[in-house]
Amino acid sequence: MIVETKLLTMENITDAGEIIRRGGLVAFPTETVYGLGASAYDDDAARKIYAAKGRPSDNPLIVHVASKEEISAAARDISQDAKRLIDAFMPGPLTLILHKKSVISDGVTAGLDTVAVRCPSHGTARALIRAAGVPIAAPSANISGKPSPTTARDVMEDMNGRIDAVIDGGCCEVGVESTIVDTTRGGCVLLRPGGITFEMLRTVAPDIRKDKNILLPLAADEKPVSPGMKYRHYAPDAEVTVIEGGREAVQRKIKELISRNQNGKCGVLLMYDAVYDDAVMINGGSTNAEYARNLFAALREFDRLGVQTVFAEFDENDGCGLAVRNRLYKAAAYKVIRV
Ligand code: AMP
Ligand code: MG
């Protein structure tokens, strides 16, 4: 049993690699969010990740490699579309679903014959993979269902005493998890939007489609393409409602909702100006890229401040809008008011 989680920095990267190689768990920074890493070749280590997060065992992990050349260590029969996406966007915040090689542990892929692979651009993440000498399986380093962590402090709040170490690398630049594209079912399908936008993907794979569940909850009897789609996600303790539209209408609606609120302290996640009395205000950002960077940190901060009701201002005004909307809708359990 782990009693104390060590806080490490880039200077301890050799030690961190050693922990992974010996079957331990290390959380590390990437350009998207903090990951919770273990050797992708080790079934027991994969099991420890599920236990530390309280993650359902049918929700597979992403395998991280240090260079695009190493993708072939994890995957086979890579399609032409997938090769073009790799050349265009890796290293970076893109994950591809590929056909799995048998060296990758079944625990990592939850028994699927496909594997999710990503080559992060973050220097510390790549240094850790190199130091470990094995591909690193890693989901986000949060308790399952909570907002993903974007600082080492967030990771510690969820994981202290559950994992061996956290490498502190400051804040994450993108702020939401990687874009996921499935390339194994003929053509390309966007399963999860992220920092590599649909428009960017389309320049390389013009026929790419969006999975219909990106902005909609699954029906009760529906089987998801990606197991992660069926679980509650990104949710703070506070109850979140998204108010979507232009500045004036959104502000008018939120003022009305605050005046009628009966559910504890109110908070507003701002895309526009700070105009609310009687509410804790946190700035999301005026562009969707900024909003993506601040979103999870803001949801966690509302919880720390004891806010019970959050109103999130939102308007999709640039390419990262789909990624923000997908996370916000899930955080709000699809409670959305369009004005
Ligand atoms: P996380 O790293 O916490 O964002 O979780 C990884 C995401 O990748 C989850 O939503 C998984 O369902 C998804 N994923 C991982 N492997 C596969 C796969 N082989 N096929 C489809 N989705 C996958
Ligand atoms: Mg996650």
Describe it for me?
This protein is an alpha/beta fold and 339 residues long. It has 10 helices and 17 strands. It folds into 2 domains: 6-210, Alpha-Beta Complex (DHBP synthase); 239-338, Rossmann fold (3-Layer(aba) Sandwich), CATH 3.40.50. The strands form 2 sheets. Strands 1, 2, 3, 4, 5, 6, 7, 8, 9, 10, 11 and 12 form a 12-stranded mixed sheet that branches. The protein has a 5-stranded parallel sheet with strand order 15-14-16-13-17, sandwiched between helices. Helix 1 (13-21) packs across helix 5 (123-132) and helix 9 packs parallel to helix 10 (321-331). Bound molecules: adenosine monophosphate and magnesium ion.
In short:
This protein is of the alpha/beta class. It contains ten helices and 17 strands.
**Largest sheet properties:** 12 strands, mixed
CATH superfamily of the largest domain: DHBP synthase
Structural class: alpha/beta
Q: How many domains is the backbone divided into?
A: 2
Determine the CATH topology of the largest domain: DHBP synthase
**Assigned CATH class of the largest domain:** Alpha Beta
| CATH 2nd-level architecture of the largest domain | Alpha-Beta Complex
Query: Percentage of helical residues?
Result: 25-40%
Low-confidence stretches: none
The percentage of residues in β strands lies in 15-25%
| Total count of strands | 17
Q: Which outline best applies?
A: globular
Q: What is the string of helix and strand elements?
A: EHEEHEEHEHEHEHEEEHEEHEEHEHE
Mean of pLDDT: 95
**Molecules bound to protein:** adenosine monophosphate, magnesium ion
N- to C-terminal separation? 51 Å
